[in-house]
Amino acid sequence: MGIIAVLVFIGVFVVIALPMVLAAPSDNSKKALATLDAALKSESKQVMLQQNMDLRKDEQLSSIPWLNKKLLSIELAPYLRKMLSQAELNWSPGRLLIMTVACLALPSYFVFLSFQSYPLALVAGVVCGSLPFGWVYFKRSRRFSAFEKNLPEALDLMVSGLRAGHSLLAAMALVSRECPEPVKGEFKICFEEQNYGLEMKTALENMLARVPLQDLKITATAILIQKESGGNLAEVLDKTSHVIRERFRLKRQIMVHTAQGRLTGLVLTCLPIVLGIGIYFVDPDMISILWHRQIGIYLMWGAAGLIMLGGFVIYKIVDIDV
Description:
flat
């Protein structure tokens, strides 16, 4: 009986313990497992580092490496990037600067080759070099005008949503779906920022940074005051929309009354330049005295200064702030 018990114990030991002993890793297998584990950890660290690098914001201001490095080191790049974003142009700051330099240098060179006059070449270069920035400011002004024109309708839509029982966030979402651009895009960004966890005040301040208009400042101030003090937000926005419409009507009325002054300034500014070009095509020898003699060069500089001074004075007279 005892022998049978011993044999059973040995059999159980062989069936259970022996496979465990055989499955235990040897020294070589332990080294291999350690090496594999270290490699996996190293690879996972590299993947995580690569992911962190991919998640970083790429400040690409120009496709030219040395120009991109220079733009990142100066404070002009953020202003140019903001201005291009406000104009809704997909240019980079480096591209804008390169276009400006090209428009400045090439006309100056060709004008100097034609007339052999440094002042005339400088004037031509400055005028042509300002064209890229002028186009950006034109696009920016036109976009702001469209936003200002459509803002009262957006506020009326928000008022209707609030009176129907929607929250302010839902009313902004309604504006971001139904209103035309650029109001639609700006309110959509503001709505998405709040969905991502940003406070209402911060989201409105970001929108004001993108669209620095007085009417939008009035709207944002009204919303923030109502948020802190309470009250009927629909009524506040309705009155704000009325104020914006009155300001817009007053601006249009001022534009009508100052149209003659603005046209006078434009004619008086362009008339000497157009007249000089016309005289050059009729009788080049007569007008060429202006840049072939020293007194003529002085007269041209004086005329340019007086034209700019007169244009500035007329602009300040007709520029009435509402």
